[in-house]
Structure formats: C-alpha cells, structure tokens
Amino acid sequence: MSSQPRVSLFVPTLQGGGAELVMVTLASALSARGYDVYLVVSRAEGDLASEIPDGVTVIDFESPYLVASLPKLARHLRKIDPDGLIASMNGANLVAIWAKILSNTSPTTVVRVENMTTYMARDYDKRRHRLIPYLMMVFYRFSDEIVAVSEGVAQDTAKIIGTDPDDIRVVYNPVVTDNLVQKAGQPVDHPWLSNGSVPVILGAGRMVPQKDFCTLIRAFRRVLRDRNARLIILGKGEQREALLELADELGISDRVSLPGFVPNQYAYMAQADVFVLSSVHEGFGNVLAEAMACGTPVVSTECKSGPAEILDGGEYGPLVPVGDSEELAEAILTVLDDPIKTHVLRERAQDFSDRTIVDELESLIHGQTNRDGTIQPRIPLL
User: Fold this and answer.
1) pLDDT exceeds 90 at position 233
2) Which InterPro entries match (predicted)?
C-alpha cells in the first residue's frame, strides 16, 4: 500500500447538487496535494460521474439505498485504513460514523453539515428524514470534527445536538477553483447569451420548493414592466413543469428558458447580467460565490443561512426578504442599473477558494489545531 497519506470521502451519489460538487472539488484538491484519495459513493450515478479527475479512485458500492452501504464502508475502512474520513450530508455522515465504529478503525472522521437541518427535517414528509435530528443528537459525538458550511448552520447544528456553537468548526465550501475560472471563459450554446442587447437574469439549482423559483419568476414579470429582459433557470427537478406552467400563466413563457442541467453553468454565469438566488433556506449558497467568481453581480434572499455571510450583510449584493417578489424585482433592477465592479466581486470570491478551504480541512484531518490552538478534535457535548 502507498506510503502517501490516504483519505476517503463518502457521499451518497454523484448527482449535480452543491454538496456532491463540493466533495468532487475536495477530492481533486487533495489528490493534487499528494493524497491517495478514495471517493466512496453509495451509488456512483449522476451528472458528476464524468467530472471525477484523474488520480482519484472511485469506489462504487452500488447500494440500493444509503444505509445498505454501511457494511461495505466498514470493509473499505478496514482494507484501506485511511488517515481521514470525510463525509457530507447528514445521512452519509451517520453512516460514516457507524462504519468507523463497526470497522474498529481510527481515521480522523470529519462530518460536514451542508444545510439547515431544522428546515430540511420540516420540509420532508418521510419519517426517516424527521429522525435525522435525533440520530445526530445521539451519534455525532462519535465523530472527531463536526464542520458546518456557515455560521448559521453551525448554530442550527449546535442546537440540535446540544453543544456550544463554538465547538463546531465553520469551514466554507471550496467553490472557487482554477477549473471554474477556465470553464467560465468557454462559449455558451444558448441564443439569448450570444446577443448582449437584452439583459439576461440567471438562476440555478434543483427545481424544488426550497429554491423558490416561483418567486423568481414572479419577480421577473415585475422586472418586465420596467425593461426588456430574459430569464434563464438552470437545473432540473420535480417542479420543472409547474414552473413552465407558471411562466405561461403569467404570459411570459417566451422570455423564460429552462434548459435543464448543463455541464458548464459557469459559462452561463459569466455571460449573465445578474445572478439571482431566491431560496427559502440554504446551508451556504454555492452558486452565489460561483457567480461572483465569474464577475457577475448577484441578488439574494436573506434566507437562513449562508447568503448573508457570502455577501457580508449586503456589501457585495442586495439581500431581500424571502418570498417577496416585489422586493426581489426592485433589487434586480437596481443591480442592472448600477452593478458592483467585477474585480470587487472576484476578490471577495477568493475567500471561498479551494486553496483556502482545503488548508483548513487538512488541519482537521491531521489534528493540528482547534479554534483555541489546542489539539482536541472530539466535540464535547453539554
């Protein structure tokens, strides 16, 4: 077995969501730093399957559901004996903790909480999702580090598991990479972006209630009262047909495009006039930092939790109340009239670069420092 440090990253699938993309980014960055990296996936299906970089070993458990990966992950840990185990998303985090216990191995186990668990448990009807907070309260103490992707997520997680928020490390998502910058400069195959005469408003994400694209479409109709514009929303999901029907009902379907998942959303961001996040809640809000890295002005709802942190309370883009289409429209019009300078946005985006973030995660894997400078990886619960 190689003498290089070994790290396993565990994630449910390779769907094109923000959490999955972050894990692929981490795998690439750690591999570039000389780690033997194993990207361990319950089911290696999804749009990101073709994005895995050379040098990263993909382990596909081909499990029908996440918990079925437990014995396979335990065997993987016994076989590879990694120095670090990083999991992302609460279900995968729990399976990773259980696998470490079952395998009787001792990798530094880092669990990443990507979203506002309180909101997620409330939004899902299935009983197993509502059990997640209780399982977190019981089992997260067996991890070595709990990482939250924003201060708001740290506070939410601390409340759930019964610990002080200062005992949870905040490490932002590593969304700004050299690959992003390179892709942002590529051409876009969309007729609205090849002609810069009409402003283009862009949204992106899973088409689910959390993202509240209905409010964005209603806000866009209000924008059209004042100026000619077009709206593109990237992504796919259960609400796609409902969004198309809403655009038709509002009489703006000829100005709204829903092209689905695109392999390079950064090129769209770079050519859009404004990027809008309309979510009800977020853990971090990757797409805001990505758009800023592309030099594109942004508007966001002031949802719990990441956007206000990314935009520094509105310093780098307007924050509007959740669900308020009128306020959202006014903010979009303001940004179209007076956008923040491109270089200012790009400089801010560097705070979320993979170089900065991976340094922090490396220190957790090797147990170098805690917030107070001591080596004390395990989270003390109250």
Assistant:
1) yes
2) Glyco_trans_4-like_N
